Amino acid sequence: MVPFLDLKAQYRQIKPEVEAAVLRAIESTQYVLGPEVTTFERRFAEYCSAGHCLAVNSGTSALHLALLAADVGPSDEVITVSMTFVATTAAVLYSGATPVFVDVDPITWTMNPDLIEAAITPRTKAILPVHLHGLMADMDPIMEIARRHGLTVIEDAAQAHGAEYKGRRAGSIGDLGCFSFYPGKNLGAYGEGGAVVTSNPELARKVALLRDWGQEAKYNHVVAGYNYRMDGVQGAVLNVKMNYIEAWTEGRRAAALDYDRHLARLSITGPRQPSHSRHVYHVYALCLPRRDETLSALQEAGIGVGIHYPVPVHLQKAYASLGYGVGDFPVTERLATQFLSLPIYSELQSEQVAEVVSQLEKLHLVAAA
Ligand SMILES: *Cc1c(COP(=O)(O)O)cnc(C)c1O
């Protein structure tokens, strides 16, 4: 038995500290935003090497507000990927704009920069790459194309807290970076949470206004805003977790390295991080030609597995009106049939990694026979 995720294991490590912080937050009666959230914003901005952090109530809200702050609206197009969680696409639609997909790179599984220029039209306003599974998209060419065409870049870093590209942190390269603190993410609240980071003070000001009803002062609403504020209790939880995020990230990376070493023998394709990147392994995915068989066999053996993601956004019924179909993004579509995510978290023990690998090895031998 190896669970896919074990949130209890992390909770046990921080139980006294986090319980005291939550009680303090309740005692303070600062239930929405407030000092815990402000402290968290300062610490998370620093962690991302960004000038500003605005805490909100989900990663989806972070994406929505980043798009609005960049003046993305109806009649605009946003270039993004279909190999992602649906929230990336949903946020573009919330802003009134149209998502335009490009395929991903077959090695890194993130936005293929070579395909961006062909997707640019006079209506294109922004590029929204996704740091899938915790590996940052190829930001240099993306930024170069964006600057040449006057486009805003918004990083979907919901899976990439602390990831790096050529020494620069996720969220700090684009004009804005968006994070999720959904409980299962690398930095998870005890409920919903998210944040926008930026080093542009004007964009930061806009996001701060939009998340809190567009209020410049109480009952002085200067823009039509939203109720997207972070709870004080979540700020308190995240402040405790900020003390551990680096150690937890290194724990994930160690587990990934452990998998890498074992899997090299089995000639199975796993995640490949370019030498200039720091992958933070929100997901450790394999690419397997006979994925479905392997998936059910591992499940039978008591190994927690997942697929991130089995149906690309452009083939989801909910987004059929965008007009895409089978065959439009061949790499994305192939990955959706081949991806298989293994258990990964900081507390995963090397014996557990060995158990997962030995189950895979059995299947592999059977498949090869
Ligand atoms: C989790 C996630 C989101 C949405 O974040 P929520 O906090 O769940 O709203 C957006 N994009 C990606 C890539 C995600 O993984």
Short structural description:
The protein is an alpha/beta fold.
Bound small-molecule species: pyridoxal-5'-phosphate
Helix content: 40-55%
Please report the distance between the alpha carbons of the first and last residues.
Answer: 26 Å
Calculate Rg over CA atoms.
Answer: 21 Å
Kindly report the spatial arrangement of strands forming the biggest sheet.
1-9-8-5-4-2-3
CATH class of the largest domain: Alpha Beta
What best-fitting shape do the alpha-carbon axes yield?
globular
Provide a count of the helices.
Answer: 12
Stretches with pLDDT under 50, minimum 5 residues: none
Describe this structure in words.
The model has no long low-confidence stretch (mean pLDDT 96). The protein contains twelve helices and 14 strands. The longest helix is centred in the first third of the chain and has 22 residues, at 7-28. It has helices at residues 7-28, 35-47, 59-69, 87-94, 116-119, 139-149, 201-211, 232-242, 245-266, 291-300, 330-338, 350-368, and strands at 52-56, 77-81, 98-102, 124-127, 152-156, 164-165, 168-169, 176-180, 194-198, 215-217, 220-221, 277-278, 284-287, 339-342. With 369 residues, it is an alpha/beta fold. Helix 3 (59-69) packs across helix 4 (87-94). Strands 1-9-8-5-4-2-3 form a seven-stranded mixed β-sheet, with helices on both faces. A three-stranded antiparallel β-sheet has the order 7-6-12, with no helix packed on it. The protein has two domains: 7-102 and 109-242, Type I PLP-dependent aspartate aminotransferase-like (Major domain) (Aspartate Aminotransferase, domain 2, 3-Layer(aba) Sandwich), CATH 3.40.640; 245-368, Aspartate Aminotransferase, domain 1 (Alpha-Beta Complex). Bound molecules: pyridoxal-5'-phosphate. Residues 58-60, 84-85, 87-88, 130, 156, 158-159, 180, 182, 192, 194 line the site of pyridoxal-5'-phosphate.
